[in-house]
Write a structure and sequence with these properties.
The structure is a single chain. The chain is an alpha/beta fold. The chain contains 14 helices and 13 strands. Helix 3 packs parallel to helix 11 and helix 12 runs parallel beside helix 14.
Amino acid sequence: MSWQARIEQALADRRNSDSFRTRQINDRGNGRFLTSGGRQHLNFSGNDYLGLSQHPEIIRAWQTGAEKYGVGSGGSGHVTGFSTAHHLLEQELADWLGYPRALLFISGFAANQAVVTALAQKQDRILADKLSHASLLEAAMFSPAQLRRFIHNDAQSLSGLLRLSVEGLQLVVTEGVFSMDGDQAPLKEIESATREAKGWLMVDDAHGVGVLGDQGRGSCDQQQVKPDLLVITFGKAFGVSGAAVLCSEKAADYLLQFARHLIYSTAMPPAQATALSAALNVVRKGDELRSRLRENIARFRACAAQLSFKLIESQTAIQPLIVGENARTLRLAASMRERGFWLTAIRPPTVPAGSARLRITLTADHTSRDIETLLEALDDEIRG
């Protein structure tokens, strides 16, 4: 088989299974509203949980940073790309989350890949929740370590695997809030099992930080857990992009020596770090925003309970509506878009086969009327 034939076959397989991915052009904004093709839609697909992507203070901070530093970092942080703005943001994050050190990464995907790749050796074992993000599972699969996946959110399943004989060290990997189902990991039980086995715990809290815990410190703060490695990202509640790894002094020094994604990538623009410092200030003071988001979640679930469809049990901003068939999910998303609601069809391989869904996400900016009209339209479409 030629390269061209292989590519054509793979694309045909995706199209035939109604799982072919396409990109939609976003003309303006990704907050409460999204404009595409000149038409405005109520946006229930983004991860801008607190509405900060449009926050004037954060926008001004980015502009101020660009005026001071320019629009790029100019190189890896190990060469010329580590600025005062990066240094201050790392210190602020470490102080806020109660860790000795924080290291900035260009994305959450890169942060997860960097940590797992730098730590795992051939004699080690990585134990990952079965539904962990692709960045975590891919890094574990391609590492020299053995990968074992425990039953989703099942600390007993994890404990059983941790008791199996292993020559090297054990790293337990999970998320705080799972991106597709919106459920939360039982972090206290997972931490207890990990400590008993003398392993290290790594938590990716991309969807928890900013919206859960005191001052938005996230899932670990909410459940009073201190993982050895905490990964947070800035493309969700912070409304910007990028990520950070929170850890000990020695772990940070180790990653600075061996994390290839950190060493060989151009650092995030200093202007972005300046904007993130402003976003952190808004997040820390954002109790009113978090309260509005919680109210919207409760309102959404209360109204949905009276309608003809069933949602997954989730108390977070992620509210998945499982449809099942890929083609039906695509049709439903298209119909809702015609009604003025931007919903995205999530299909395998992103989610397990047979669990195609509309991944509905709520923000602090949504109004009661937004939620009510969305659910009325959904109910109408599903009833057919």
